């Protein structure tokens, strides 16, 4: 009997309960069979009751959901508005989260990513600079905090063979680069240390995307040479498809740096970046302190080679997102505000609906339904509503995320990881649960006494708690709308000011494209210059071309090419402290094509574009003022780059141009004729074409002509100058579009909330309004009282919103240009807009109150 009972209990009871009861049976072997049977029957009866209770709860929950669905079907307007509001808010939140999470929050896809960092040299003003190769070696040799290190330089190679010539983005890196990151090729091998020397660095590693796109995923490619810049280089590896290149987004090919003691490994050549893996347990601050000590020793040993005073150690996670962090964080805050407004609006609708259902609740209470039973019903309704809103939100996110990705600024790291993933779905699930609790619990806040009154009178009564809650929600909605509108207004005004700045040239009707003269035919400078002259000649013959020029770089083109310059008659004691200027090596027609003004002196002529001509230069007004303050720079002599470079005579002063970005500080430029530049001709050059018509329509013809000059030279970055300007403001434009959309939605929801509260108030006060009308109150007085009620809510929300906006908009500083975060004109405009829209939202309930018939209102009681 005992064994049978034990086996029966072990088979039927849950493990924890079976262990407890079976333990009792085993520990009391002297008990008789009757006691054992009694204990077994009691345990099985307990199990049955537990199962029955669980089934009862499940059936009750299913019944509550069915009732909730039936109620939503009976109120299609309420259901549609609530689901649409929640869907849009959840969808927007999910879409923005899907961008922020992989870019800002998710750990980098490398082993132990918290130990990876960039190292920069720090100038006296706190700004950062790249690092020279000799300095990198000294850092790596003397810093005990560094476990591994690598140097990185930019590279723009041209691939030939296997189709048309193609220029790709790449990096020249130390052989230790991938080892420092902790990643390895999927095919082939990593770089070898003995390949990181001149002559043996003709090896490359490809990204998985380039391998698939250019070479069709040929697994036999590893170990074979490919043509790069006209030279054979061996492919030794292919990175895995999962490799996320955070260090240099967009790079698709890597070549060994191969530096030893060449001239460009000097301490003053700040053209490399340094990425390191710190030793385990070393904090960033400790590493910075150690490198500062090493840097101070280098400055003492080489006083003429350093203008900087220290170093900066920046976590790779932060550095990779530094440029985009302000805009993404601002958008994250904005979408959270929209979510709060949407939830407030739906809760407000729920509260208004709860007032209409007071009689129902009173009857159910009178029939014996307890408070917890009613609460369960309300929670089921909130869960169903939020779940439907969540489904709609997922649909919105599926449509929104691809659109959002297409509008993201170029160079955003980890853009490939932006999609609706399990993390985003987990967020939606969490929002559904949270919203179901909020929407279920908010209507449950009512006084029991009101139920009896409702049952006796048959009227719908809103408790004081309900009215206060609804009013508070409306005030919150208005406040949040003010904050969003203030942010949108500041960004819009900032963008307008940014687009109105004087960029120093005329961008309309300008077309640009880059060409790259590579290969055996361009072994010397004269061959490159001859190619440029032929391109200019052929393009100038095209119909619709007013003028054409060539330069090594153009404003807003994304290049940073600077040389140190100084007064040749007053050489500096430390060349590292001389000012730098943007290098422009140009054809004589360049300033005319770009419409850059000559403030004094003259422009270049064709006679200047010869190696035998007198060495001349043009300088911008900012550079002239820097080198010769208060003096006439015409006729002064300028030294560029190296002290051994022959001085050049200044023949003209040009206007300043915005070189790096519209919001960047004014930089200094200098110009020399292309034919006079003998420090290495630029294989990579930019062709700029001015046309009286649409420059984009001329692009195909210009490409065709350039290709006819040399079919092997790739043509890339074809864009109008207006497109380049738009690209430089892409972050602000995206922020403006989303802020404006969020602010518009917030304004609509806030006004809807005010309308709902006032409409409900008019319905509740119908008898009061009827009595006042019967006693002589005029329609204007009744309208005034309703407007006053709505105005109080709006004014309180505006005041709170202004306080919040002044605090919140300070975080928008990185997106603003020429405007303070607390700009009074913007804030006043927001107040006027909110006030005008609020009045419009109050008028309909006010007019309805004014039309109340006193006799009908009194009889309805």
Topology of this protein?
Blueprint: H1 2-12, H2 15-27, H3 33-74, H4 76-105, E1 116-122, E2 128-129, H5 133-142, E3 146-155, E4 158-160, E5 166-167, E6 170-173, H6 177-181, E7 187-188, E8 203-206, H7 208-215, E9 225-228, E10 231-238, E11 253-256, E12 273-278, H8 284-301, E13 310-315, H9 316-321, H10 325-356, H11 358-366, H12 371-407, H13 422-441, H14 448-457, H15 464-499, E14 510-516, H16 525-540, E15 547-551, E16 562-567, E17 580-586, H17 590-594, E18 598-601, E19 616-620, H18 621-627, E20 637-640, E21 648-654, E22 669-673, E23 684-690, H19 699-709, E24 715-720, H20 721-728, H21 730-764, H22 766-774, H23 779-808, H24 824-850, H25 854-859
Parallel strand pairs: 6-11, 8-10, 17-22, 19-21
Antiparallel strand pairs: 1-2, 1-12, 1-13, 3-6, 3-12, 4-5, 4-9, 7-10, 8-11, 9-10, 14-23, 14-24, 15-23, 16-17, 16-20, 18-21, 19-22, 20-21
């Amino acid at each position: 009997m005992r064994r049978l009972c034990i086996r029966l209990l072990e088979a039927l009871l849950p493990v924890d309960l079976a262990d407890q009861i079976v333990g009792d049976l085993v520990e009391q072997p002297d008990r008789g069979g009757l006691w054992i049977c009694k204990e077994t029957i009691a345990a099985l009866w307990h199990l049955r009751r537990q199962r029955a209770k669980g089934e009862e709860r499940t059936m009750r929950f299913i019944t509550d959901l069915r009732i909730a669905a039936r109620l939503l079907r009976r109120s299609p307007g309420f259901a549609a508005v609530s689901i649409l509001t929640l869907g849009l808010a959840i969808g927007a939140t999910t879409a923005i989260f899907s961008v922020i999470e992989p870019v800002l929050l998710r750990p980098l896809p490398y082993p132990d990513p918290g130990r990876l960092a960039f190292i920069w040299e720090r100038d006296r003003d706190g700004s950062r600079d790249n690092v020279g190769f000799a300095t990198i070696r000294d850092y790596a040799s003397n810093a005990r905090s560094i476990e591994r290190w690598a140097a990185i330089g930019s590279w723009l190679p041209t691939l030939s063979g296997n189709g048309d010539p193609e220029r790709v983005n790449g990096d020249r890196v130390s052989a230790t680069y991938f080892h420092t990151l902790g990643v390895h090729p999927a095919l082939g091998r990593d770089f070898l240390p003995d390949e990181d020397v001149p002559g043996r660095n003709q090896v490359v590693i490809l990204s998985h995307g380039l391998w698939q796109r250019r070479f069709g995923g040929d697994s036999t490619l590893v170990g074979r040479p490919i043509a790069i810049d006209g030279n054979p280089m061996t492919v030794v590896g292919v990175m895995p498809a999962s490799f996320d290149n955070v260090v240099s987004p967009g790079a698709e090919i890597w070549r060994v740096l191969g530096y030893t003691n060449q001239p460009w490994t000097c301490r003053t050549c700040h053209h490399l970046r340094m990425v390191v893996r710190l030793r385990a347990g070393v904090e960033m601050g400790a590493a910075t302190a150690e490198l500062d000590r090493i840097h101070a020793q280098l400055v003492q040993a080489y006083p003429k080679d350093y203008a900087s005073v220290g170093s900066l150690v920046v976590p790779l996670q932060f550095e990779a997102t530094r440029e985009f962090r302000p805009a993404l964080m601002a958008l994250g805050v904005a979408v959270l505000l929209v979510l709060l407004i949407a939830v407030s609006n739906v809760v407000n609708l729920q509260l208004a609906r709860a007032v209409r259902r007071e009689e129902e609740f009173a009857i159910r209470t009178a029939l014996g339904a307890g408070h917890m039973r009613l609460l369960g019903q309300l929670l089921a309704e909130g869960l169903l509503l939020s779940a439907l809103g969540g489904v709609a939100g997922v649909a919105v996110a599926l449509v929104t995320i691809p659109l959002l990705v297409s509008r993201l600024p170029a160079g955003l790291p980890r853009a490939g990881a932006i999609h609706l993933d399990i993390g985003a779905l987990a967020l939606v699930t969490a929002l559904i649960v949270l919203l179901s609790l909020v929407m279920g619990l908010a209507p449950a806040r009512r006084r029991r006494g009101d139920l009896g009154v409702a049952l006796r009178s048959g009227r719908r009564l809103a408790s004081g708690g309900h009215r206060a809650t609804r009013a508070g929600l409306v005030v919150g909605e208005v406040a949040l709308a003010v904050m969003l509108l203030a942010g949108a207004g500041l960004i819009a005004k900032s963008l307008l000011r940014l687009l109105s700045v004087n960029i120093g040239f005329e961008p309309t009707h300008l077309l640009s494209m880059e060409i790259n003269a590579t290969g055996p035919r361009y072994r010397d400078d004269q061959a490159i210059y001859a190619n440029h002259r032929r391109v200019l000649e052929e393009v100038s013959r095209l119909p619709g071309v007013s003028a054409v020029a060539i330069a090594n770089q153009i404003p807003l083109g994304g290049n940073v090419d600077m040389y140190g310059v100084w007064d040749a008659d007053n050489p500096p004691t430390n060349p590292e402290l001389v000012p730098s200027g943007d290098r422009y090596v140009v054809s004589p027609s360049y300033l005319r094509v770009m419409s850059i003004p000559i403030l004094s002196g003259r422009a270049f002529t064709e006679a200047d574009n010869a190696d035998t001509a007198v060495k001349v230069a043009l300088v911008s007004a900012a550079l002239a003022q820097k080198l010769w303050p208060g003096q006439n720079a015409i006729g002064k002599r300028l030294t560029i780059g190296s002290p051994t470079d022959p001085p050049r005579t200044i023949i003209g002063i040009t206007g300043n141009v915005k070189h790096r970005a519209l919001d960047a500080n004014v930089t200094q430029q200098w110009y020399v004729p292309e034919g006079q530049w003998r420090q290495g001709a630029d294989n990579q050059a930019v062709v700029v074409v001015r046309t009286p018509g649409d420059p984009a329509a001329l692009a195909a013809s210009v490409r065709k002509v350039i290709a006819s000059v040399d079919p092997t030279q790739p043509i890339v970055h074809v864009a109008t100058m207006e497109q380049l300007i738009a690209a430089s403001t892409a972050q602000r434009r995206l922020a403006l579009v989303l802020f404006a959309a969020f602010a518009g939605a917030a304004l609509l929801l806030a006004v809807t909330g005010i309308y709902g509260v006032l409409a409900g108030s008019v319905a509740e006060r119908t008898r009061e309004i009827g009595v006042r009308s019967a006693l002589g109150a005029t329609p204007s007085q009744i309208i005034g009282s309703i407007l006053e009620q709505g105005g109080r809510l709006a004014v309180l929300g505006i005041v709170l919103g202004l306080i919040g906006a002044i605090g919140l908009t300070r975080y928008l500083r990185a997106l603003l240009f020429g405007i303070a975060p607390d700009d009074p004109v913007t804030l006043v405009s927001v107040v006027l807009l909110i006030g005008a829209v609020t009045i419009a939202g109050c008028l309909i309930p006010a007019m309805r109150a004014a039309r109340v018939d006193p006799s009908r209102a009194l009889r309805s009681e």
